[in-house]
Amino acid sequence: MINTRAALRLTAWFRRNLRTKLQSRDVYTVIHCQYKASLLAWLSLPIRLAQEHVYNLVPTESPYEAAAVGCPYISSFTFLSPQCPSGPRHDVRAMSVPEIKLERRAYSPRQTGTMILEVLLPIAATLLCYFIFHASQILYRNLTSPLRFVGGPKSPSFLLGNFKEMGDDPYLTEKWRAQFGGTFRFHNLFSMSELHTTDLKAINHIVSKPSIYQKAPSLLAATEIMLGRGILAVENENHRRQRRALNPAFGLPQVRLLTGIFIEKSVQLRDIWAAQAAQDGAARIEVTSWLRRMTLDVIGQAAFNYHFNALDTGSKPNELNDAFTALFHSPHATRYAGFRAAQGIAPILKLVPGPGKKLVHAARQTMLRIGQQIVNRSIAEIKASEGEKDLGKNRDLLSTLLKANLSASIPDSQRLDDAEVVGQIPAFFLAGHETTSLATSWALHALSTNPAAQRKLREELLTISTDNPTMDELNSLLYLETVVRETMRVHAPVVNTERMAVEDDIMPLAKPYVDPQGNSHDSLPIPKGQRIHIPIVAINTDKEIWGEDASEFRPERWEKVPDSVSAIPGVWANLLTFFAGPHNCIGFRFSLVEIKALLFTLIRAFEFEAVAKDDIVRVTVNFLQRPAVQAEGPCSGLPLIVKPYNAQL
Ligand code: HEM
């Protein structure tokens, strides 16, 4: 009798070798056999062979032949064990590695056609069953949902729900609010029901119950696939641990140290625009793309001590920037994002070679490789500067994080592992640069269409006698503060966010909901799995909270804001712009000082005039709103006339 361990070793080897050989010889045969014998049976074939033949192996000097069970298209496996020892109780471990020979039968075209049908039909049938199963699950959920009485727009398609029309028209939710009120239901991809609400009691309830209202597991999984295990991809204890580790890096003392980088990069951008405007005394500049280059350089240097050199017009293409751009800014980014969202909801789509899959994979590999290099270098520098009181020359967020993470005072259970540290790099990149450049673009748009506010701001900025102010000097400028607040209120770059209830709940409402049948509800039953759409900009500009002129840009409103705004659960300035609760924006102080540094430098140096004052619209991609000239298409950005400001005139 052969002992069990030896049989298992042989079985494992047999499975490995058999698979490799089959793959290298004839993929079609393998696929067909997978269908014919079924995947499970096929994978268990070596085990069966081992069980049937190896256990009862009759010791012999001659080759041992085993028939391939269940696969008519492979005639035989020849299992050669020339040195198989004889004797009734031999040990398989003593055998040399056997050889498998595979003989394949020749097929007529008719047989081949039949085989292809035999492969394709069951695949199609399996997909259809999968689709019907999930569709009926979703339909059943929608039909039996305790929220089915809540009104809302019709879904134009089962597969896309209202997803596509919302992407096509960024103002659609506003129209729906006018039609159905602040609380309504719409349908997302695959007709998944999503509750939209601007009710502040409901929003407060959501952010104060993070154990119930979380990022959807499908979103977390999709984020992890794309960005790794950074803070954007985790919930619960993992999130609390990562957040604790990151918090010190984003505090005011750290941002104070980084202000020099914000100013240095703002000055570099100012000089580029000054050179462009010098020739004709003014230039038409598409400011959004330039601001993005500036914030990209800042996030690289300030967040992980990496030089993108995006403002150096002559510099070579940057590999990491190319990888990030491919992921988030390619012309097809929305399609890729839509497909990833669909994969999150229907995991079977991960087997399909969908749009951008290869590109995302390649970009992610580059991102992780360079991310690991950045982390290794930072750790080496921190170790080399051990004993120094401060961080030495490395003031970036990652170095601060690593220094704290390496400290002996941190219990092992609280430490971030390598993958988590590397995962913060794309998280900083994704969350921290375009948001800031869009906020500054919208500020320049607002100031170019409000010349009085622009003049007033410039007057205040020119009271500072240096081009290199500190963070405290920037924060002492009161009108600058109100301009930034007003921009972040009216033009919050992140338009909305989303949460999913992970258990049944009752959501209280400040204003009773009157359903289409006229019944009033002072709370809503939320079933487990319900998604909730939180419209950040809509709450920031709600007339019932801010007054009739809520959608106008008027910095002076901050001299006295209505009492009702105190009900907004924001982390900053009673605005939802940086969200609230445990997932509030960790980088909000960083971002505000960077925006102030940019406005300080640019408004002192230039006058900005609108090119297409009434034609600027918002284009929403991946929750972010970008400005665009309606007549010139969604990628036109924000063109402005930039004139050097001459104080003597
Ligand atoms: C105008 C600029 C910015 C805006 C409007 C903004 C907005 C937001 C919002 C709304 C969230 C919450 C998203 C959610 O949970 O659904 C968030 C989270 C986050 N933001 Fe920002 N952000 C900005 C700048 C930054 C910067 C500069 C950084 C980093 C340098 C940053 C890093 C993060 C991170 C890491 C999170 C995730 C926090 C967590 O889940 O605990 N953000 N941001």
TrEMBL record:
The keyword Metal-binding applies. Pfam families: p450. Keywords: Heme, Iron, Membrane, Metal-binding, Monooxygenase, Oxidoreductase, Transmembrane, Transmembrane helix. One of its GO terms (molecular function) is iron ion binding. Heme binds at C585. It is found in: Membrane. It comes from the Eukaryota. Signal peptide: none annotated. Its cofactor is heme. GO terms for cellular component: membrane. The chain crosses the membrane at residues 114-133. Pathway: Secondary metabolite biosynthesis; terpenoid biosynthesis. InterPro entries: Cyt_P450 (IPR001128), Cyt_P450_E_grp-I (IPR002401), Cyt_P450_sf (IPR036396), Cytochrome_P450_monoxygenase (IPR050121). Gene3D superfamilies: Cytochrome P450. Belongs to the cytochrome P450 family. This is Cytochrome P450.
